[in-house]
Structures are given as structure tokens and as C-alpha cells.
Amino acid sequence: MSARPLFVVAGVGNGSGTGAATARVFSKAGYRVALIARNADHLKRTAEEINAAGGEAAAFPVPSYAYGDVTSVFDQIQSHQWASGGRTELRVALFNAGAGVWKPFLDVTEADVALITETNITAAFAFSRAALLAFKQNEVDANGKRGTLLFTGATASIRGNVTTSAFAAGKFALRSLSQSLNKEFGKQNIHVAHSIIDGGILTDLSLSRRQGDPEWKNNGDVRLDPESIGKSYLYLANQDRSAWTWELDLRPAHEKW
Ligand SMILES: NC(=O)c1ccc[n+]([C@@H]2O[C@H](COP(=O)([O-])OP(=O)(O)OC[C@H]3O[C@@H](n4cnc5c(N)ncnc54)[C@H](OP(=O)(O)O)[C@@H]3O)[C@@H](O)[C@H]2O)c1
């Protein structure tokens, strides 16, 4: 019997953003879903919601995005007994966690630098290593790939600005990691892709930062819909290796920036 494909995502927040929306998209496409995040209650709720919709999701809370915590959660995922039984193979991994610090440079503290480094860089290295080791065990699929490793970037992945010295340093690092991995692991038929999200994503947090602005909430032309980002990630996962994307750039149609 062929193995069920597994999708794993790190960074699921409260379930209203890109991480959870992408998990729903991959679940509907037939993947088992492993959810990694720090808030166990939020995570459990998102997993239950996917299961209630007919999918198969499991929650894997982490105490932090420290290297060891990310590595050990992958061990738990690999040994997890899925309810419907049978074999499963990790086929798609999304590193979606991102810590943001938006401050003038002279206000950035050592703790801010540590947070940015741990979440955006250290965790990404641990996540990538675990995912790549799992992909290397796979045979190539119908698209000629052993697996797809995806990263969520931001405007700050390619542009520093007045309050983004810390955030942009983290996102630049993530982008360069993805490019190096694309070059190194492409030869092993593992697809690594980075996505620049150049605009605000409609999440509970983003909306609260805009005081619930109904125009921003309801006008799909001015902000990104998390589900639409998830569909683009599924598109990347479905690309075959004769013409695959390293970097995608996603933006709403009526951008002003
Ligand atoms: N929201 C936007 O407007 C926007 C725009 C461009 C790019 N992005 C990027 O898109 C990705 C998805 O973001 P999203 O807004 O759609 O939300 P999301 O997918 O719901 O969650 C993003 C994840 O980042 C983690 N995170 C957030 N703040 C953190 C902190 N201070 N320290 C450690 N981890 C933190 C959270 O981890 P836990 O799950 O462990 O809580 C969260 O799940 C992120 O990488 C973000 O940088 C967001």
C-alpha cells in the first residue's frame, strides 16, 4: 500500500493566519497534517477543526523555537501513530514561524536580537535539517521529487527599513538559507522554495493592529488572504522538477507600496 503524504508546518499561531490556512489547503488535497506551534490550546483547536472537516491532523506543541525543541518535535512526528493507520511519508514542510520586532535601531535590545535569531534563523536551521533528512528517505514521486521545503518570507526579506533592522536581518537570513538549500538539495531532487509575502496578511493580529478596519478586512484587493497563500504553496508542491520555482512573490492586486 502506498504511503499517505504528510505536510508539516511550524508556526500556526491562533489558527487565523497563513500556517493554519495552508494546513487546511493541504489537508483538503489529501495530506496528513502535523502542526507545530507554541500555544498548545490554539494548536489543539486547529487540529480538531481540520479533523472535523474530514482531514487527519495532529498537534505537536513546542515549548520554544530553540534548536533542540524543534529537533525533538520532529522525532515525535516521525513516530506518531496516525488514527487511520498505514504508512506516512513527509512530503512537504513549511517553515512559517516568524518573530517580528519593529523598533528604531537604538531601541533594539539584546533580548530582541536573541528572539529574532532563535525564531527566524536557529529554528529554521533545525526545521530544515529534520525535514531534509526525512525527504532523503523518500523515493521520487510523480513530479520527480523527494520532497518540498517551503519558507514564508516578507517584504523585509529583501528590503530593510527604518524600524526593521532586527526583523529584516532575520528574514534576509531565512531567504539566503532557502537559496543555499535550493542549490544544494535540488541535485537530490528535493525542491526548496521561498515566498516573499509583500503586503499585509488578513489575520486576527493584523486586523487588530488596524483597529478592525472594515475596508482592510473586506477588500481582498488590498491585503493577502491566508488561504490564497496556502493555495500558492500547494502549487509549489505540485511543480515538477523540470521547471520549479525557488522564489515566489505574492502581493495583493491593488498594492500602493
Ligand atoms: N501578517 C502579515 O501581515 C505578514 C506579512 C508578511 C509576512 N508575514 C509572515 O508570514 C508568516 C505567517 O504569518 P501570519 O501573520 O500569517 O500568522 P500565522 O501563520 O498565524 O503565524 C505565524 C507564526 O509566527 C510565530 N510568531 C509570531 N510572533 C512570534 C514571536 N514574537 N516569537 C516567536 N514566534 C512568533 C507564531 O508562532 P506560534 O505558532 O508558535 O505562536 C506564529 O504561528 C510569518 O513568517 C510572518 O513573518 C506576515
TrEMBL record:
Gene3D superfamilies from the entry? NAD(P)-binding Rossmann-like Domain
The highest taxon in the source lineage is: Eukaryota
What SUPFAM superfamilies does its record include? NAD(P)-binding Rossmann-fold domains
Any single Pfam family the record assigns to this protein: adh_short
- Matching InterPro entries: NAD(P)-bd_dom_sf, SDR_fam
Q: What is this protein called?
A: NAD-P-binding protein
Originating species: Ceriporiopsis subvermispora (strain B) (White-rot fungus)
